[in-house]
Amino acid sequence: MENNFRATGVPPGLEYLTQLDQILIHQKVELLEAITSFETKNRYVIKNSLGQEIYTAKEDSDCCTRNCCGPNRMFEMKIKDHSGQEVMHLVKPFRCTSCFWPCCLQEMEVQSPPSTTIGYVVQNWHPFKPKLSILGAAKETLLTIEGPFCACSCCGDVDFEVMGKDSDQPIGRISKQWSGLIKEAFTDSDNFGIQFPMDLDVKMKAVLMGACILIDFMFFESSGDGDQRCSVFG
User: Fold this and answer.
1) Cβ contact 44:25 at 8 Å
2) Which cofactors does it use (predicted)?
């Protein structure tokens, strides 16, 4: 999976994404969290469609923030390649998700390489549906994401459609994949698939990875009372 070329305009470490139209993101099960419900740092493995690991991601946050603020918490996340080199950096401030607080909705900054912003994921206010915008480095809208009224994975996948800026037709999809009854009931460890056009700008592929992780926190991460959100209402 190593490349001997550097595609023009592609951040270092993301060259392999030029060859992909699908990414799988698996959250690692933390034993302490599964047994005690004590919130630990989220960790993810990012794979290609063949199941080969291409990146790993680890949350950087403190214990108090994780267990007091739940999925609304602020955090940073390092995404590293197989050599341990950080290729992406995610920054999420403390934000609300409820439709009743439209002035303080969720957002995430995506950097690649670290300290160089390539885009943002911003939640858009909507009274019923999860909606997000994918912004470029200059905060111009490039893509939008729309989820279902109820983002509850009861025995099935939950799809968030990725739309072009000026199109009503999906060009991709972020899917929260059903993990099985036991795993869904007793952990908040989730599996996601991301589909996008092969020729999509690599930076936007990277920002969609950030959007997937933000969606996980917004709708599939257990809150302080042990429950998960399933809509913009909570």
Assistant:
1) yes
2) Ca(2+)
What is the SS3 assignment for 72? helix
Burial class, 154, CB count within 10 angstroms (exposed 0-12 / middle 13-18 / buried 19+): exposed
Indicate the residue type of 118.
I
| Rg, the chain, Cα only | 17
| 127 CB-contact burial (10 Å; exposed 0-12 / middle 13-18 / buried 19+) | exposed
User: Consecutive sets of 10 residues in the chain, 234 residues long: mean pLDDT of each?
Assistant: 54 96 89 62 94 96 80 92 97 77 84 97 88 97 90 73 89 83 49 96 98 92 55 47
pTM for the model = 0.84
**Distances in whole angstroms, Cα of residue 217 to Cα of each of 70, 142, 156, 159, 214:** 9, 22, 19, 15, 5
Question: What are the two backbone dihedrals, phi and then psi, of residue 129, each rounded to the nearest 5 degrees?
Answer: -110, 150
Our CA angle for 119, 125, 127, nearest 5°, is 150
Tell me the C-alpha distance between 22 and 15, whole Å.
14
Q: What one-character DSSP code corresponds to residue 189? A: -
